[in-house]
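Thread: phosphoribosyl-AMP cyclohydrolase, structure

OP (GT): Posting the sequence first so everyone is looking at the same thing. Length is 66 residues per the record. Can we get the structure tokens written out before standup tomorrow? I want them in the notebook alongside the other entries.
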Amino acid sequence: GSSGHIQKVKEIFVDCDNDTLLLKVEQIGAACHKGYRSCFYRKLENGRLKIMSKKAFNPEEVYKNE
């Protein structure tokens, strides 16, 4: 299944060892399958994970036919 959200690749960078790629994208919709815009929606703070953003969509609705 798919959320229909996409990332349009704008630039691709390669590191000096040729073993890592960095893609700069235009995010359309959310990127995280858990419903957040980014997969990096949590921050480690005082030894605990803190959610730093609101969900962009409800994954139970988007992926309900899987």
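GT: Both are above now. Quick notes for whoever picks this up: Residues 59-62 form the longest helix (4 residues). The chain has a mean pLDDT of 92.
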